[in-house]
């Protein structure tokens, strides 16, 4: 195979120098700069449709369900009654699609900074953007960090589905963001944030978890596999205002019939429990 041939996209980012991931492009469906970032959508030979922001893969049709289901159902199933949920970021609609499936969720508020990502996802990524059609959802365009300043004791669960900490997402990885989220939560509320990979950036995982631990009486890192993310793995920092929460004991279990009806292809109660069992080098680094 000629790895230098044309029509291959190569992800290159200063966050993980020295190694990279490439895929073959069938067609460039969209390639424009928005007010915040470069937005690209590709049709590919092996991954289906792919969304790329500022040169970084956000999601592929082949494996997005692992990320979207885990960032949604880990916190939702750690909470006893997750009626009102805030999503920060998530402009492709995939997290809204998953959160709307949970039987106890009544209301979803979402704040995404980039209207262009929403528009492009609706046009080219309908399998995720279907989340925007949920009657439970109210969608705002704005900065999640600023939005959080104006909300107090309002949400049961806050999910931060942000891009990596460069560009508009930098503020979402800082300790004061965890402090603002804490204020926006109802008693016993839970937060869950995209927190990077232990193979390529364990410092980011460590600092994000440490910010969370400073604000929340209970905090942990849960992981999942996403083959098209750097090193094939990503994780979430999860924090709870309930000091007695047991993250590895889901408060609700879905039957096989539920899983089928909800089209859950990755998340189940066993995967939930296993997500918090960490390899030795991670366990001691994060303790
Ligand atoms: N699953 C993806 C990942 O981890 O790579 C994230 C997908 S989603 C497309 C990320 C979204 O976060 C983007 O649409 C981006 O515009 C949005 N975002 C970044 N910074 C933000 C901020 N400060 N407030 C709200 N949304 C933000």
Unreliable sequence segments? none
CATH topology of the largest domain: Rossmann fold
Overall pLDDT, averaged?
95
- H and E order: EEEEEHEHEHHEHEHEHEEHHH
Estimate the helix proportion, in percent.
Answer: 25-40%
Task: Give the strand line-up of the largest sheet.
Answer: 8-7-6-9-10-12-11
* Distance between the ends: 44 Å
- Count of alpha and pi helical runs: 10
Helix and strand content put the structural class at alpha/beta
The CATH homologous superfamily name of the largest domain equals Vaccinia Virus protein VP39
Give an overview in words.
The protein is α/β, with parallel strands linked by helices and 287 residues long. It folds into 2 domains: 8-60, Roll (Spermidine Synthase, Chain: A, domain 2); 64-286, 3-Layer(aba) Sandwich (Rossmann fold). Helix content is 29%, strand content 29%. The protein has helices at 64-76, 94-99, 115-124, 126-129, 144-149, 175-184, 202-215, 256-261, 269-274, 280-286, and strands at residues 8-11, 21-33, 38-44, 49-53, 56-60, 84-89, 107-112, 137-141, 155-161, 185-194, 218-225, 233-240. The strands form 2 sheets. Strands 8-7-6-9-10-12-11 form a 7-stranded mixed sheet, with helices on both faces. A 5-stranded antiparallel sheet has the order 1-2-3-4-5, with helices on one face. A hairpin with a 2-residue loop joins strand 4 (49-53) and strand 5. Helix 6 crosses helix 7 (202-215). It starts with 7 loop residues before the first strand and ends with a helix. The structure holds S-adenosylmethionine.
């Amino acid at each position: 195979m000629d790895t230098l041939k044309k029509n291959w996209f190569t992800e290159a980012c200063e966050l993980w120098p020295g190694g990279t991931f490439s895929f073959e492009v069938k067609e460039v469906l969209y390639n424009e700069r928005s007010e915040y970032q470069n937005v690209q959508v590709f049709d590919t030979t092996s991954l289906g449709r792919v969304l790329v922001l500022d040169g970084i893969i956000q999601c592929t049709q082949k494996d997005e369900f692992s990320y979207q289901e885990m960032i949604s159902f880990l916190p939702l199933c750690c909470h006893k009654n997750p009626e009102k949920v805030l999503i920060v970021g998530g402009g492709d609609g995939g997290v809204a699609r998953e959160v709307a499936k949970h039987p106890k969720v009544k209301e979803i508020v979402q704040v995404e900074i980039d209207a262009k990502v929403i528009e492009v996802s609706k046009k080219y990524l309908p399998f995720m953007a279907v989340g925007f059609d949920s009657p439970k959802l109210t969608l705002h365009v704005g900065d999640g960090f600023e939005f959080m300043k104006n909300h107090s004791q309002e949400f049961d669960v806050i999910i931060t589905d942000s891009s990596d900490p460069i560009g508009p997402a930098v503020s979402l990885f800082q300790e004061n963001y965890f402090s603002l989220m804490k204020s926006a939560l109802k008693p016993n509320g839970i937060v869950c944030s995209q927190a990077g990979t232990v193979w390529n950036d364990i410092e980011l995982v460590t600092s994000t978890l440490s910010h969370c631990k400073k604000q929340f009486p209970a905090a942990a890192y849960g992981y999942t596999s996403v083959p098209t993310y750097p090193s094939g793995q990503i994780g979430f920092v999860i924090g709870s205002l309930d000091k007695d929460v047991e993250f590895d004991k889901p408060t609700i279990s879905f039957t096989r019939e539920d899983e089928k009806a909800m089209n859950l292809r990755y998340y189940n109660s066993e995967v939930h429990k296993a997500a918090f069992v960490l390899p030795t080098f991670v366990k001691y680094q994060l303790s």
